[in-house]
Amino acid sequence: MFIGANGVGKTNLYRALQLIQAAAAGTLSRELAAEGGMHSALWAGKRQTKKPVRMKLMVGLTPAPTEGPPPYAYEVAAGLHFYEMRAGLPTPTGAAFPTEPQIKEETLLFHHRGRQTKLLERRGPAVFARDAEGQRAELGLDLMASETALGALQDAERFPDLHLIRRAMLDWRFYHGFRTDMDAPLRRPCLAVATPTLSSDASDLAAVLATLVHIREDTEPLDRAIADAFPGARLEVPMPGKTASFGMVFPEHPQRVFAAAELSDGTLRYLALAGALLAYRLPAFVALNEPETSLHPELLPALGRLIARAASRTQVWVVTHSEILASAIAAHGNVAPLTVIKRDGETWIEGLTLAGEFREDEE
User: Fold this and answer.
1) Which end of the chain is more exposed for a tag (fewer CB within 10 A), N or C?
2) What is the pLDDT of residues 55-87, one digit of tens each?
3) Which contacts qualify for 210-217: CB closer than 8 Å, 24 or more apart?
């Protein structure tokens, strides 16, 4: 859980994880280009001369529950041909446009009993990978500079570790606000298809709720989340026909079902968050960026308890401005929030050392 003031870079941390997922999908260059290109993404401060200009993203991964540090570490570096030409550096690369984001390096490491094994290594167009027999070989892939090796290597039988990591990363879910205007998909019925996990835009919320109510037939967690936030209210999820829908009944009007199109923005967003965190099957990683948006402060303790309960089923990563929400998650999830700060123009986490560890005096 991360908390901090506006402008310190909390959303950058959230976005970095989305970009790592894009590397697994093979769409990292396109994602960077859509944000304004490498000029917008790269560090704007002073750089070392005669050094390659890179944006590096790295994540530790534990595909299955285990103790100790994550056994896998994936790193990808993107750059721009323009900067390297200007610095007079050699720039081996595949086919690319002059100003498009280019994948320069990739590695996937496996740590086991003090040993480190490179399962994937990419330097420019050259790609090496270790197969199921443990043999390291150069792959004759005709990768463009816009493609990631992790996204391109699709042979699950030959490269099982790469397949495992890619699948784990593609399963991540990111929730950053939900459209609640009158034309939002969230306000309309959706196709009645059993849906185990909420989509990132929550357009299939009605199907997720119907799956919980009519297929799992265990509504206790959902009923508790509704009662916690809206005392005396109840959620109505009729048996779907061709489409699935839902509504709310409030104690002031016990005979009236308010359809999704009639609900307030805050009520609808809370229900979407409940669908994300109570779904039939949760992904291995759920990221919430400012989930308190449009919610009344009185709903935040209930949301904090909902997040804490979901964390017993999966890994939940939260970025928030709200002290109320952070306190509720801390109290019910037994976790201390990390404070994001600006340090000499850089996004930093309070108490974090350059070695990537927290000071001993930090809780």
Assistant:
1) C
2) 999 999 987 666 667 899 999 999 886 656 555
3) 210/237, 210/239, 210/240, 210/244, 210/246, 211/279, 211/280, 212/237, 212/278, 212/279, 212/280, 213/237, 214/239, 214/240, 215/280, 216/280
Angle, vertex CA 43, rays to CA 41 and CA 48, nearest 5? 135
Same domain membership, residue 52 and residue 155: yes
16-27: average pLDDT: 96
Tokens 């930090």 -> residue: 362
**Which tokens belong to 14?**
């959230």
CA angle 246, 247, 250 (to 5 degrees): 155
Q: In a 3-state reduction of DSSP, which class is residue 77?
A: strand
Sign of dihedral through CA atoms 50, 53, 54, 55? positive
Angle (CA) 111 115 119, round 5°: 55
Asked if residue 261 belongs to a domain, the reply is yes
Task: Please provide the distance, in angstroms rounded to a whole number, between the alpha carbons at the two ends of the chain.
Answer: 14
Looking at the structure, tell me whether residues 162 and 187 fall in a common domain.
no
User: What does residue 115 show for φ and ψ, rounded to 5 degrees?
Assistant: -105, 150
327: tokens are: 């306190």
Q: Evaluate whether 127 touches 98 at the Cβ level (below 8 Å).
A: no
Could you list the residue range(s) of the whole structural domain that residue 335 is in? 181-343
Q: Indicate the pTM of the whole model.
A: 0.88
Q: 44 and 161 in one domain?
A: yes
Query: What's the confidence (pLDDT) of residue 346?
Result: 86
Q: What is the CATH number of the domain that holds 297?
A: 3.40.50.300
**Residues 300 and 328 sit within 8 Å (Cβ to Cβ):** yes
Q: Is 29 exposed, middle or buried (0-12, 13-18, 19+ CB in 10 A)?
A: buried
Nearest residue to 50 (alpha-carbon basis) of 6, 84, 1: 84
| Any domain includes 210 | yes
Amino acid of residue 299: L
Q: Is 253 in a helix, a strand, or coil?
A: coil
Per the domain annotation, does 106 fall within a domain? Answer: yes
Q: Are residues 190 and 335 in the same domain?
A: yes
